[in-house]
Write a structure and sequence with these properties.
Structural class: alpha/beta
Bound molecules: adenosine-5'-diphosphate, magnesium ion
Distance between the termini: 25 Å
Helix content: 25-40%
Order of helices and strands: HEEEEEHEHEHEHEEEHEHEEHHHEHEHH
Strand content: 25-35%
Number of strands: 16
Largest sheet: 5 strands, mixed
């Protein structure tokens, strides 16, 4: 039945990532991808910019403005700012429809599997405060597994490793539930960027910004020796002379710098496999594990994980969209999920 509220409102899936927020609108697909960054005026806490615009301000703001990432390391570091960010993104995808007193959009939000009940409540509260009606939370690895098309509801083991900016989330899923999971909060892309920056500081006395170290990682970073190693020109500020300086760095050096966070990803996968029952382990031997999330694109990470576990490893076709696609798939079921909730309560 076509309901008026369906025309006026929209059902929305949100991958509330620490690095990027991706919004999926039911029947329309992915409508927005922006960095999870907010620029605020210090003192008044007035929001000045959100998303791309705010990210471009990072490291370039005067003292009265700060550009911050409210979701750093997978949790809500600042409630008000997360709410403002959610509101901005939701308004952007459905400008007219959203703000009605009578029809409120239903939201499916993917959250990291390691978050506490208090943190979950904070996400729900932020969504309601931003104007949402029903809010359904789904664990990120489950959303990612659904998004990449793993047979999550079958009685067989599937393994997903989602590596974003703040966290590395590992999960083994069977019969629609997470059987084992592990969340490493220091093994994401941010930790990689920090390790590159501190390596360059230690070895060359050069200070590089957050965005420069991320660029180095994306341009020449790797987890496994490359057939052809690369070099890159790096700009920063010399600590000793205090002046801008340029130097050349090699991909071997960057790999060395990334040893720690990459090692933690390997450990997270191994720890999860260690807990696995023999039947599930047997499924994984055949089916292997799937990588998603932006940081799964680090060169050679699949090869390293395959070497270290002996399992086949594949990177999702569109690793950055997996979680959002998963929330989109859940939106299709939202009517029955809502009914189920009502009858359960
Ligand atoms: P989140 O879910 O935490 O928002 P994403 O899945 O959007 O994170 O991934 C963002 C992370 O992916 C960032 O740390 C970014 O630097 C990293 N990233 C993006 N592209 C690449 C690449 N080609 N190689 C390595 N890391 C990458
Ligand atoms: Mg993510």
């Amino acid at each position: 039945m076509l309901k008026l509220s369906n025309i006026l409102s929209a059902d929305i899936g949100i991958d509330l990532g620490t690095a990027n927020t991706i919004v999926y609108v039911r029947n329309e697909g992915i409508k927005l991808r922006e960095p999870s960054v907010v620029a605020i005026q210090t003192g008044t806490k007035r929001v000045l910019a959100v998303g791309v615009e705010a990210r471009n301000m990072i490291g370039r703001t005067p003292p009265n403005i700060i550009s911050m990432r409210p979701m750093k390391s997978g949790v809500i570091a600042d409630f008000d700012i997360t709410e403002a960010m959610l509101q901005y993104f939701i308004r952007k995808v459905c400008p007219r429809r959203f703000y009605s007193k009578y029809v409120r959009p239903r939201l499916v939000i993917a959250v990291p599997s390691g978050i506490t009940d208090v943190e979950k409540r904070a996400v729900e509260d932020a969504a309601h405060a931003a104007g949402a009606g029903t809010v359904i939370l789904i664990e990120e690895p489950m959303a990612a597994a659904i998004g990449v098309g793993l047979p999550v509801s079958e009685p067989q083991g599937s393994m997903i490793v989602d590596i974003g900016g703040g966290t590395c989330e590992v999960a083994i899923i069977s019969l629609g539930g997470i059987v084992h999971s592990y969340s490493a909060r220091q093994a994401g892309g941010d930790a990689m960027d920090e390790c590159i920056a501190s390596y360059i500081k230690r070895v060359y006395n050069l200070l590089v910004g957050e965005r420069m170290s991320e660029m180095i990682k994306i341009e020449i970073g790797s987890a496994y020796p490359m057939a052809e190693e690369k070099t890159l020109e790096v700009k920063g500020r010399d600590i000793v002379a205090g002046l801008p300086k340029t130097l050349t760095i090699t991909s071997e050096e960057v790999r060395e710098a990334l040893k720690d966070p990459v090692g933690q990803i390997v450990d997270a996968v191994r720890t999860t496999l260690d807990k696995c029952e023999p039947e599930l382990a047997a499924d994984l031997v055949d089916r292997g594990l799937v990588l998603s999330g932006g940081s799964s694109q680090l060169r050679g990470l699949d090869k390293l994980l395959s070497d270290q576990t002996g399992l086949p490893v594949t990177v999702a076709d569109d690793p950055l969209s997996a979680v959002a696609e998963g929330t989109g798939a859940v939106l299709k079921e939202i009517d029955s999920l809502e009914k189920y909730r009502r009858s359960a309560s």
